[in-house]
Design brief:
Blueprint lengths: L7 E11 L7 E6 L20 E4 L9 H5 L5 E6 L2 E6 L9 H5 L5 E4 L1 E4 H8 L3 H7 L2 E5 L7 H13 L3 E6 L5 H7 L5 E5 L5 H8 L4 H12 L4 E7 L7 H13 L3 E8 L7 H4 L14 H17 L1 H7 L1
Helix pairs in contact: 3-5, 9-11
GO molecular function: 4 iron, 4 sulfur cluster binding; metal ion binding; oxidoreductase activity
Cofactor: [4Fe-4S] cluster
Catalytic activity: glycyl-[protein] + reduced [flavodoxin] + S-adenosyl-L-methionine = glycin-2-yl radical-[protein] + semiquinone [flavodoxin] + 5'-deoxyadenosine + L-methionine + H(+)
């Protein structure tokens, strides 16, 4: 039987001193792989579950050695009126790494790494004092961290063994079995609800929301603490009917603690060329701070006026 700490998974970042990924000061572990293809995605490096490649366009000198050795046509040097640019499209990449080995400028880099549970937890525990002083801990994010279900479960189980508070940021787009297996080791779920209109959800994420909402209800039935986190994209879901549907979910589910709106930002747009992606990273209008605050104020008013909130206040 495999020792828990030796179980391996693929991550693309371990970010320290996070204050927006759960209570207190936290270390967020980003796992690779996501079943959704949200057109506004900003963590494009987390979409593929495999260790991949990234292109440093500043270091690239357009020597063409990568395109010479790549048999799949992933590297193209394009010349137009603005000059020469290196386009990397990893759609057909077979991960042979021949381009990486031939690049004289080290402009092609490895994106992601395979790590054991023990290796990750050892790095997380470096900042244990900060967690203890702030009520923080470890958060799993992605990608969709629960897509690597066995690895995520092992990380969470080990974290609880050493006394860490645990959060999981999830889209909920995984099987009910995975949700049920990890739930005992999670203190707080930060649960994304991206759309409440089925046709819109399919159009903008590539999947139905039915399993996602079912998993949200499963966690509620298990009595798990949940905070709904909802990306708001101008022109997509910044409508009153969506806000009302979010509050209806909040009212229905006893263990949902609140609704946090996550205004769209365009940090993912520049990553398309860096990670060789063509079909994601669509650009939308970035809302002003006043507009974003208006959305949150609107939701907060609806939550305060809800029957559930009135019962809590009694």
């Amino acid at each position: 039987m495999e020792y828990l700490g030796q179980k391996t998974g693929v991550i693309f970042n371990i970010q320290k001193f996070c204050i927006d990924d759960g209570p207190g000061i936290r270390t967020t572990v980003f796992l690779k792989g996501c079943p959704l293809r949200c057109t506004w995605c900003h963590n494009l490096e987390g979409l593929s579950q495999k260790v991949g490649l990234e292109l440093d366009t500043i270091q690239c000198t357009h020597c063409g050695k990568c395109s010479e050795v790549c048999k799949e046509g992933c590297h193209q040097l394009i010349q137009d009126l603005s000059g020469i640019r290196h386009e990397m499209d990893l759609t057909h990449c077979i991960h042979c790494k021949a381009c990486l080995e031939q690049c004289p400028q080290a402009a092609i880099l490895v994106c992601g790494s395979e790590k054991t549970v023990d290796e990750v937890i050892e790095e997380v525990l470096v900042d244990r004092k900060f967690y203890e002083n702030s009520g923080g801990g470890m958060t799993l994010s992605g990608g969709e961290p629960l897509l690597q279900g066995a690895f995520a479960q092992a990380l969470l189980e080990r974290a609880k063994e050493v006394g860490l508070h645990t959060c999981v940021e999830t889209s909920g787009a995984v099987s009910a079995q995975v949700i049920e297996k990890v739930a005992p080791f999670v203190d707080l779920f930060l649960f994304d609800i991206k759309e409440t209109d089925e046709a819109q959800h399919i159009h903008y994420t590539g999947q139905s929301y039915k399993q996602i909402h079912e998993n949200l209800r499963t966690l509620n039935a298990l009595g798990k603490a949940i905070r709904m986190r909802c990306p708001i994209i101008p022109g997509v879901n910044d409508r009153e009917s969506h806000f009302d549907a979010l509050v209806a979910l909040y009212e229905e589910l006893e263990y949902v603690e609140g609704i946090q709106l996550m205004p769209y930002h365009d940090l993912g747009i520049g990553k398309k060329s860096r990670y060789g992606l063509k079909k994601v990273g669509e650009s939308f209008r970035v809302p002003s701070q006043e507009e974003a605050q208006g959305w949150q104020d609107n939701i907060d008013r609806k939550v305060e006026a809800s029957h559930k909130k009135q019962l809590i206040n009694k």
